[in-house]
# Entry
Amino acid sequence: MQRINSHRSWPLFDAATLRAIEQAAAASLPPHTLMERAGLAVAKLALAVAPNAKTIWIACGPGNNGGDGLEAAMHLHQWGKQALVTRVGDETKAPVDASASLLRARAAGVTFAAQPPAVWDLAIDALLGLGNTRPLEDTMADWAERMSAGAAPVLAVDLPSGLHAETGGGRAVHATHTLSLLALKPGLFTSGGRDASGQVWLDGLGVERPSHDPCARLAGAPQAFHRPHASHKGSYGDVAIIGGAPGMSGAALLAASAALHGGAGRVFTALLDDDAPSVDPSQPELMMRRWDSLELAQMSVACGCGGGDAVRAVLPKVLSTAGLLVLDADALNAVAADPQLQALLQARARRDRATVLTPHPLEAARLLGARTAQVQEDRLAAARELAQRFGCVVVLKGSGTVIAAPGAIALINPTGNARLATAGTGDVLAGMIAARLASGDAALDAAAGAVFAHGLAADQWRPDRALTASVLARGIAGA
# Structure
């Protein structure tokens, strides 16, 4: 059993692949072996999660997920715990393995009840697993709500009941711990998955590492950044930040600060405001320039941060000439509204010009001509579609940020938290990506590395204090 952390990369598998893995493993083992192993793993983790628990409520569904819960209940009962099982479903229609586990639990003397106990020290959610995509209803919905609202920890078996394994959608049990069986599922780590799953664990049940290709990967920590002693500012590239229309210069300055602290050799800031100051006294390292005076072909450009309507006028040249490009915020909205700008963006891929798009869900929806809810219903699919349509690396921001590129396995970022839900943090990310591009990182690596560090800085922030974008921009070097 392994605790899933953010330090290494993990493969993620869709439901169809997981069913194939399970069927192949079951065919090579004696009957009921996988369910017995799963139940034992759940019981062991239950003891680790709540070693002093006396009363353990195991809510079992009608299928094999419920069978895993029954196996766990049998072990916990034999180990001296007060294991109480509530169960839904017609037992005459239960799968073969689940029926066998029900007989084993009854023979072992496990207590069954029609209703949950009045109080419990640990709840085990074994209602619905991988094979079920229906919403929680009736008794299961009631039990799920009780578990989620209770003060005791909740251990979900394979998936929090109600959570879609691939998208992270659905109204689900909110677990404090989830034991994923055989392999990891992408839905545990994006959309509502992170809130629903709590700390994720993995038990492969003794099955050999599958040879199937993953549908995505949980991103790991980027390679450590090393600066040779014999280097100079030119070794780390030039970044240009273009944005900051009247009244919105702060967004561009945040991106520029992030690029500076993210390691760029030089940072030029082109504010789209004729009345903008010629120097930022708080950051004199930033060089203020007119955007049309910059040699964009030789630079890593982040365009759109606070750009307002003014950014539309600069985008044709930026799209046509920038060597490396990050498009954010108002630049994305301008592209979404203008087919000619979309054609220029697509032409960059044909000219092998690296481009990274950094939309939040609403901006992604505009680019796709869809609704925000549709983007959030399948974040992996939305990011992949944007990457294919525009030939770019796409960073779909949100809980479990998705990084996609044409022809590459999509990544889900494991770092970050709700402290990033404040104005300007997206501008900081755009500057960070631009700095990594300037230093020579490939576009996908630059995006994934910046997203990881951006989230890690928030994870390392003091939990009792709000995190502002300006502080985040200065703290990314440490992360």
